[in-house]
Automatic annotation (TrEMBL):
Keywords: Membrane, Transmembrane, Transmembrane helix
Origin species: Chromulina nebulosa
Name assigned to this protein: Uncharacterized protein
Keyword Transmembrane helix found: yes
Superkingdom of source: Eukaryota
Keyword Transmembrane: yes
Residue intervals passing through the bilayer: 6-24
């Protein structure tokens, strides 16, 4: 027994010594790691690494018929044939192999499943490094440079256009870095998506042009190939709608556009152009996002060079088909130094006056998580200079900087709309100006992306592994996305907590957040889900407003919805029409027993009339003082107002 006790004690002692050794080794290892990084490139942010390191690979990777179409044969083969000289799934102690199953179907079921078989004595870093086959830095770098070259020459950013872009579309250094680290982190993680939500009015929706000519779709068209080369799937959800009020629409960015966006675009200044609470609420979606988003504010107005002379170039600079080689312009291939110079210039302009200032004046240094920037040709900047009547002037806006018809882009052709007859409303951007807005966003984000590629190349050349870079970049990104403070000016919108919006408005990408899903029992209300009109079908527009209505001539009885009360003791009920809930009786059934089949719900005979309610804007009504839990609310039109139309389009909760 004594001998056994001695052996157990010895084993425990050895284990403790080994644990202590590895702990000290890891600390020294990461100290050296940071020294390498800091010695080889400027470090703007303090980075620390947790001792616990995440596992980056999963037990299987599934391609579906949706995402397979975005992969090249080379990319698929690089997954299947991880070991170039090994055509079977047998593995040795020094390799990674895959069991491969193929089941091609017409629907969205898995067609290829690759299950890694890990049998290795290699370090975790080596295994993870070998499993990174989803990106091609060289291809992404070439595509990014070609894209920047196109924008650089189209808008003469080596001359007159530089003032225009830096004044109307500037970018802080920390925002540049946030974009850079976001893209590189997603690349190293693998199998990631970059989600951009663009909300707004008919301006963003692309009205008077084809939908695929709208500026959000220009961003998608330009950047998708570059992100694909990095192994990142790009999604752009343009949820803009014509003639929509900022309330309740601003509560529904994630319901309509998707949860946890990387980018939140706002444009609605015709409807609420001086409403700081709205601007702040929208900015908080980027801050709430687990994908550490950014916010981009766009002024709604339009400006057209229709009166300028016709272009002498064929095709014109404003044409989708124009390329720098058409006019024998040299390739602009920015290196890391050139990128840093542009980064500094954009930051200098931002510090003087952010182009988003009209919409982000509420931001302070505690609010950097939302990273507000944007586009506004009417915002002035002290660094902006231009020439008018032969005299040099300063403190100009973007329109001044463009100097009328001076830029080669500003010709008669740029003043034509994408509509079949070339005409459109003067508050809508023309086809070319949609392209300008889209390429202005693309310019900023591709600059930062290319900077990230150069950073990764340098760090890999210095001996760091992809796993080490992922750890470092993740920490840098975390520091650029701190916790948000309490709301400053949006308390009336209850913005300290994330709202959940239920609506059937289209487009709609969060399929579990529809108004129809809240309806229980049976009802006789009309579901107005009219089809897209012919002009929408022709131009490809996606915006539509399905609503539930009762009246005016017929009595449709009561409609019941399920609500969840959590953080706040109220919900907001909204109708598409102004004061559509004005003549209604509200019933509340607390803690109602809702059957699994919702249509089988039968309300009790004795319903409680709820009097705690108040208006919220023109279209919404708060139902107040509700206890925590799941309840049923009944909405009953008042028969004493037969000419009134009662409607229900949104339900907003803070569960």
């Amino acid at each position: 027994k004594n001998n056994q006790l001695y052996v157990y004690t010895l084993i425990i002692s050895v284990i403790c010594i080994l644990l202590l050794y590895f702990k000290v080794y890891n600390i020294n290892y990461y100290d050296k790691l940071f020294n390498i990084i800091d010695n080889n490139r400027e470090s703007h942010y303090t980075r620390r690494v947790d001792e616990s390191e995440p596992h980056l690979w999963t037990s299987s990777s599934v391609f579906t018929s949706d995402n397979l179409t975005t992969l090249t044969d080379h990319e698929i083969n690089s997954f299947i044939l991880n070991n170039n000289n090994n055509n079977n799934t047998n593995t040795t102690s020094d390799s990674i192999g895959y069991f491969t199953t193929v089941n091609i179907t017409d629907n969205n079921t898995p067609i290829t499943t690759l299950s890694p078989i890990i049998q290795s004595n290699k370090s975790q870093d080596s295994l993870i490094e070998e499993s990174f086959n989803g990106y091609d830095l060289s291809l992404a770098k070439k595509q990014a440079i070609d894209l920047l070259n196109l924008i650089y020459h189209r808008y003469e950013l080596n001359g007159i256009g530089a003032q225009f872009f830096r004044t109307a579309n500037n970018f802080a250094s920390y925002q540049w870095d946030k974009v850079k680290y976001k893209f590189m982190k997603k690349m190293l993680q693998g199998n990631q998506t970059f989600l951009m939500i663009f909300g707004g009015s008919s301006v963003t929706a692309g009205h008077d042009n084809y939908f695929n000519q709208s500026f959000p779709m220009i961003v998608l068209k330009r950047m998708k190939p570059v992100l694909k080369a990095l192994g990142i799937k790009m999604k752009v959800h343009n949820i803009a709608q014509g003639a929509n009020n900022c309330i309740p629409y601003s509560f529904c960015y994630e319901s309509m556009g998707g949860m946890n966006p990387d980018f939140v675009g706002w444009e609605q200044s015709y409807n609420c152009g001086h409403d700081d609470p709205i601007f702040e609420l929208v900015g908080r979606y980027a801050g709430w996002s687990t994908n550490q988003g950014l916010t981009y504010y766009s002024a709604s107005g339009a400006w057209s060079p229709i009166g300028c002379p016709a272009s002498t170039d064929n095709p014109p600079y404003s044409s989708e088909d124009w390329r720098p080689e058409n006019v024998n312009l040299p390739q602009w291939s920015p290196d890391a130094t050139a990128l840093n110079e542009e980064k500094t210039q954009l930051d200098n302009y931002y510090k003087k006056n952010p182009s988003s200032k009209r919409f982000s004046g509420w931001v302070d240094d505690k609010y950097i998580a939302s990273a507000p920037h944007g586009f506004n040709v009417w915002e002035t900047n002290e660094l902006c200079t231009y020439v008018k009547d032969g005299e040099s002037k300063t403190k100009c806006n973007g329109i001044d900087a463009a100097m009328g018809c001076t830029m080669k882009f500003m010709t008669h052709e740029a003043g034509l709309y994408g509509s079949d007859n070339g005409n459109g409303a003067n508050w809508h951007p023309t086809r070319a100006f949609h392209m300008l807005r889209g390429e202005a966003i693309t310019w900023l984000y591709t600059l930062a992306l290319l900077d990230g590629i150069y950073m990764v190349e340098s760090d890999l050349a210095n001996g760091l592994t992809p796993f080490e870079l992922l750890t470092i970049y993740s920490k840098a990104l975390d520091q650029l996305h701190p916790s948000m403070p309490d709301g400053k000016r949006c308390q009336n919108l209850h913005c300290d907590y994330r709202p959940i919006c239920f609506t059937d408005y289209l487009p709609h990408y969060s399929k579990n957040l529809t108004l129809t899903d809240l309806i229980i029992g049976t009802h006789n209300w009309t579901y107005d889900d009219y089809e897209y009109p012919d002009w929408s079908k022709h131009y490809g527009y996606l915006d539509l407003k399905p609503v539930y209505i009762s009246g005016p001539s017929a009595y449709h009885g009561e409609i019941f919805i399920k609500v969840t009360i959590g953080i706040n003791d109220f919900v907001a009920l909204c109708g598409e029409r102004k004061e559509s809930l004005k003549h209604t009786i509200i019933h509340v059934i607390p803690y109602a027993n809702i059957p699994e089949n919702k249509t089988e719900f039968i309300p009790p005979n004795n319903l409680t009339i709820w009097t705690k309610k108040k208006y919220f804007g023109n279209e919404c009504k708060y139902i107040l003082g509700l206890p925590v839990g799941i309840h049923v609310i009944g909405i009953l039109p008042n028969t004493s107002h037969p000419s009134h139309i009662t409607g229900l389009s949104h339900v907003i909760m803070w569960p």
